[in-house]
Amino acid sequence: MSVNVLELCWTEIEKLHKEKTVMVIGIAPIEQHGRHLPVGVDVYETEHWIKKSIIKLQERFSDYTFLTMPIIPFGNANMKGFPGNIHISQKLLYNLVIETLSSISEWDIKNIIVISGHAEPKHLIAIEEACACINKKFKDIAFSPMGAIFSEKVKVKEKNTLMDKLKEYCNDFHAGWVETSCMLSINKDLVNENYKSQPDIELQEKEMIFPKKVAEKIKKYGHSGYPKEGSKDLGDALNDDMAEKIKTAIEAFILRENYKQYEHHELYKIPFLRVKIWS
């Protein structure tokens, strides 16, 4: 069963079987996504992936209650020069997640999942650090697998057409064919037809952690990658692939089986990407 927590009164939450309740929190920023996509892309993706992954999880955990809530529309990034961005500092994000998890921990729920469609490493690492902090206090009740998923640590069988496209048009980091396709699948009415005429803007993976380099490459457009290569069919495959990966990671956490491999982004141990907690 999937329930929006907004629809429950406190006594209904109190009566939940806490060992068989999973609270899924979505958090993603409002942020520019080029001339062809809305600023809510990360929010829409997060919401969509949560819904699809819960449907998949219910097949195995039919006696569980999956709680959802409105997406928290905040996140960390450093993408200056465009109207439409609402970003918060990494430390504020960390504190926001800490406070949210702390509040939910008081409900005595044993499985709290944080999902984000925003792939910025510092954003994901802040969430992971917040989960780690809460877990020290409450013994592994919080889990955020998105850093591992975006780092390709969660393996599922991908469709051949998707694999071919990923190889041919790699380094598609922001509002390129991947996110354009995802949005064509989620709600094509929110995708401007001008995506078909957007230029290719190429960035290497190692450049993505240097905001000034990114800003210089994407100025006047706002995307990096290949928007015109997007399609609804690819979006259907991408969204299902993501939901399957999220399902796989959450399943491991619910069962407490081999889930620690999904706890961190591949860049988690790089000091300058971590939260400066004492600053």
Automatic annotation (TrEMBL):
Required cofactor(s) = Zn(2+)
In the UniProt record, does the keyword Signal occur? Answer: no
Q: Kindly give the InterPro entries that the UniProt entry links to this protein.
A: Creatininase-like_sf, Creatininase/forma_Hydrolase
Which is a GO BP term held by this UniProt record?
riboflavin biosynthetic process
Q: What Pfam families does this protein map onto?
A: Creatininase
- Which UniProt keyword terms apply here? Hydrolase, Metal-binding, Zinc
Please state which protein family the record places this protein in.
Belongs to the creatininase superfamily.
Q: What is this protein called?
A: Creatinine amidohydrolase
Source species taxonomy: Bacteria, Bacillati, Bacillota, Clostridia, Eubacteriales
